[in-house]
Amino acid sequence: MISHRGAEFASLIERCTRGLQAIFKTSQPVITFAASGTGGMEAAVVNTLSPGDRVLSVSVGVFGDRFGRICRNFGLEVDELRFEWGEPADPDALADRLAGDGGRRYAAVTLTHNETSTAITNDTATLAKIVRDYGALALVDAVSGMLATEFRFDEWDVDAAVAGSQKAFMLPPGLCFVALGPRGWEAAEKSALPKFYWDLRAMKASLEKGQTAYTPAVGMMFGLDAALELILEEGVDQTVERHRRLAEGVRGAVEALGLKLFSARSHASNAVTAILPPPSVAADDIRKHISSRYGVVFSGGQAKLRGQIFRIAHMGAVAEKDMMAALGALEMTLAELGAPVELGSGVRAAQSLWLGGRLSPELVVAGVRQ
Ligand SMILES: *Cc1c(COP(=O)(O)O)cnc(C)c1O
User: Fold this and answer.
1) Of 283, 285, 334, which is closest to residue 310 (Cα–Cα)?
2) Quick one: which of 200, 283, 231, 252 has its CA closest to 361?
């Protein structure tokens, strides 16, 4: 370890903060806490709101619901605007809801940039603008969306955004990153919800001295420094593009295998793909088999989607080769569980998409034969 009150740590956290600002696309300080993403969501709430405030929770899945529950746990008055799981949040519906708020004057609206439980990416730029035009704070959970999908903190003028180390940052769990915009910091001056560890103003004051308010997770910060170097070397936009490309290949493979995507294709996530199993096989049997036989871990459905879907993650330190392994293992798993499958058809579809769709699957095969 190094001293977290010394010069070496000061340059480490300064370098990390600059990297995070490049990723968030913001000139605001980005605060790093030792916590999971949920801690960062709590920080966004307790630093901007006060007892008696009303919040509109926009939710398209488990994490959207969680943001609303955090607000409710702090005694805020929370109304919900929920959309069917597998569908994105509809900007018109949000605009209508805010226009017809019945005098409830929401102080904040919670949004999910990328809803991991349903593999949906919301149109956060549009939703945040509607919230701003109404005059409430837009608090954005970008935990799994940051780096996997375009995010522009300053340009979209959001008031708070949260990211987490264990998603597209390709780090272990343990850090979350929180940024406030100008209105967010203004709100932090007045916010009267209880907080101590999560006090962003204390963290900002410490950051200006190259420190954190309380002991940081120094080891994780070494990892963050290394990850940011790799990410900035690849380029932030290029990292997002890699996620988009991998997601496109996985979706193409899944459809070529005759499986159905759970999520609306127009808003399908770059970070994770949610898939309905074939009628003859249970989603959790696919997960159990592919894990025990091939050492490939797929996630299951959460909450009311438990047992209904399986999810392939493609965020973080992953490339085409990893997805080819996962898709090949999926094909063998389906075959071994007795589902109709043409071996190689999913991998081939992904390969063809990654080759830029220049070659039809037949030509790719022919090319390999030559
Ligand atoms: C992972 C995740 C979180 C945070 O979860 P933690 O387990 O607390 O890190 C929040 N929102 C979304 C969309 C996520 O994917």
Assistant:
1) 283
2) 252
Give residue 361's pLDDT band: very low, low, confident or very high (50, 70, 90).
very low
What pLDDT digit, counting tens, does each position of 309-346 carry? 999 999 999 999 999 999 999 999 999 999 999 999 99
Query: For residue 278, what is the DSSP state?
Result: P
CA distance 169 to 10: 21
For residue 162, list its beta bridge partners. Answer: 141, 178
Q: For tokens 């159905």, what's the residue?
A: 260
pLDDT tens digits along 89-118: 999 999 999 999 888 899 999 999 999 999
> Rounded to an integer, what distance in angstroms lies between the CA atom of residue 125 and that of residue 122?
9
Token couple for 61: 């899945």
What distance in angstroms lies between residue 35's CA and the mean position of ligand 1's atoms? 11
Average of per-residue pLDDT values in the chain: 96
Q: How far is CA 334 from CA 208, 232, 263, 310, 327, in A?
A: 54, 38, 21, 13, 10
Specify whether the CB–CB gap between 36 and 144 falls below 8 A. Answer: no
| Euclidean distance between CA atoms 155 and 75, whole angstroms | 32
Q: 60 alpha carbon to ligand 1 midpoint, in Å?
A: 14
Q: How far, in Å, is the centroid of ligand 1 from the Cα of 10?
A: 28
The residues lining ligand 1, judged by C-beta closer than 6 Å to any ligand atom, are: 36-38, 63, 112, 114-116, 141, 143-144, 164
- CA-CA-CA-CA dihedral for 49, 173, 302, 71, to nearest 10: -10
Closest C-alpha to 149, from 269, 25, 263: 269
**Nearest CA owner, ligand 1 atom 3:** 37
Residue pair 156/140 in contact by the 8 Å Cβ criterion: no
Mutation choice for ligand 1 from 32, 33, 38, CB with most ligand atoms inside 8 A: 38
Q: What is the pTM of this model?
A: 0.95
How far, in Å, is the centroid of ligand 1 from the Cα of 111? Answer: 13
256 CB contacts (<8 Å, ≥6 apart)? 345, 346, 348, 349
